[in-house]
Design a protein that fits this description.
single chain; about 25% helix; about 150 residues; 4-stranded mixed sheet; 4-stranded antiparallel sheet; alpha+beta
Length: about 150
Amino acid sequence: MKKVEIQGYTHAELADKTATFGFLKIAHDGALIRAEGEHLEVSDGYHTFDELYEHRIELWIAVCRLQKTVYGEFGGVKDFRAVWRSKLHSDGTGFDGWFILGIRPEARRQITYHLPISRWDDTDFAETLEIAPEWDGHTSDDVLNRLKEL
């Protein structure tokens, strides 16, 4: 079952606050639309959210593979831009069906993403850690800025 939340909309056409159309259920409260359904797709008119998410996963794996190759094998500074993966956070918790793929384990430099466990074998180039390095509290904005520094 997929679920979607759409915020910031200016118009919603529903006869009532909740509507069900076969396999799709939509609810809104004037500020937020929630939709869930087996075959739900959200699109910007060009790409679905699922397509864009797959692109993000593929791009992150490629960036990590390049970091490992350029800086790990040939650059001689493996520890500076170490590429690692772990199924557990630093406190021993994790998300079922997900793992973390990251570079730069040191604080204020980390870049990490959670990836589906189905992509684990695609990241066998990364150092496998029992638990991830301690999270430095980075936000999405921090990650964007750190990516620009690569």
